[in-house]
């Protein structure tokens, strides 16, 4: 059984100040992670399998996700080879287009509320809290990609691609009396980035490369061996 103590917001001594609205501070002598952007305070965080992680680790993961989301505007470049005709008989054409991976990484995305708010302020004892909301995460892409583009990326991503995943909490946390809190879940995604080369082959005339789309990316929600979503659960209360 995991017990988590919520600390009421009072004057705090700042320890670390981040650039993404996240800071670790001490309140009443206890360490908490304050999220000024979402107006939340995180008390403790756990991986989806129940393994605890430090607030410093959670802060770094959230900052990485926010950095990515601030830079995820479409940045691909499409270069068309105008010297070669694309007027090809579709009955005889064979698509040999492919994706070349240039980078891959894993990171947490935005935390979402994963339980009802538990108001334990008038209780004589701590109140159990568990995830009552299954968070479904779906694949994400550079804007403007076609279904064919996505199939090229999936085929050469280098990991098993999942179109969606759902969270599940298999353990219980406790909100101390006099406090009010809820659970959040930040899904983990596997990302891949690279370039698409478009090639079409036909009998007699052979194969033609007619363009490239560079700097495209896709993200697949990561899964645990159980099949449920990978990510981080955290106990939070509003500032």
Task: Tag the structure with descriptive keywords.
single chain; 239 residues; mainly beta; 14-stranded antiparallel β-sheet; two-stranded antiparallel sheet; 10% helix; disordered N terminus
The number of helical runs is: 2
Radius of gyration: 23 Å
Distance linking N and C termini: 26 Å
Q: In this structure, how is the largest beta sheet organized?
A: 14 strands, antiparallel
The SS-based structural class is mainly beta
Instruction: Indicate how many domains the architecture comprises.
Output: 1
Count of DSSP E strands? Answer: 18
Mean pLDDT: 82
Percentage of helical residues? 10-25%
Which series of helices and strands comes N to C?
EEEEEHEEEEEEEEHEEEEE
Describe the structure.
The structure is a single chain. With 239 residues, this protein is mainly β. The protein has one domain (12-238). It contains 2 helices and 18 strands.
Report a brief summary of the structure.
The chain is mainly beta and 239 residues long.
What does the secondary structure layout of this molecule look like, with pairings?
Elements: E1 12-17, E2 22-27, E3 30-35, E4 40-47, E5 52-53, H1 55-70, E6 77-80, E7 94-95, E8 98-108, E9 112-113, E10 118-119, E11 127-129, E12 136-138, E13 140-141, H2 147-155, E14 164-166, E15 173-175, E16 180-202, E17 206-221, E18 231-238
Antiparallel strand pairs: 1-2, 2-3, 3-4, 4-5, 4-18, 6-17, 7-16, 8-16, 9-16, 10-16, 11-15, 12-14, 13-17, 16-17, 16-18
Pfam family, one: DUF6060
